[in-house]
Amino acid sequence: MKDVVIKFEHVTKKYKLFKSExxxxxxxxxxxxxxxxxxxxxxxxxxxxxxxxxxxxxxNGAGKSTILKMITGVCFPTEGKITVNGRVSALLExxxxxxxxxxxxxxxxxxxxxxxxxxxxxxELEKTIIDFAEISEYIDQxxxxxxxxxxxxxxxxxxxxxxxxxLIVDEALSVGDEEFKNKCxxxxxxxxxxxxxxxxxxxHSTAMAKEFCKRGIVMQKGxxxxxxxxxxxxxxxxxTVKK
Length: 243
Known about the structure:
Strand order of the largest sheet: 5-6-7-3-8-9
CATH architecture of the largest domain: 3-Layer(aba) Sandwich
Number of helices: 8
Structural class: alpha/beta
CATH superfamily of the largest domain: P-loop containing nucleotide triphosphate hydrolases
Oligomer: single chain
Number of domains: 2
CATH class of the largest domain: Alpha Beta
């Protein structure tokens, strides 16, 4: 039986909403300042096993991004428990962790270390990352001189080439031109189909979800409305979109 690599147990995430940033700051010193509370994720439970490919569907505001942030440790649940077992590579903010004054090559080492790799592991992957990003002639220039597309390609290349155990993709396959998009799609397929890499794929494209995933989870207003076969999940998601 395969190991569970992501587990949500009755997870709820609440945010405090203030009328202004000034009131938010005042609340730090005076708890009597009024605010409204929003449940971005409301009592959600699921398990994802090693090697599974799962699509996460939902309209904007459904709670998808909050789930991803909690899995990657950007934020934490207000209630419930989250367990994550394995090296996570998240194709969310592709350029996060870059230092604009460092060269592309130096940023490979910086981001690699932030993702938990040893220097020897990064050295082994360096050429592969540079070649995949297709920016070899600029790699020793400061990242602040890169176009946004070049930075995204480098970020994507680092994340997909670090041999992740859990790969999280949030519409990141729209990087670059059509040829590079196809290259990215092929790379994600390659990763998912070997080494039992677990994929959590957030997208509005049902066709792409069906290409990558066999299972789908549908979120609506913070609650999980469906968890099952990808075709059934797509049908359920399309019903929520019409509402």
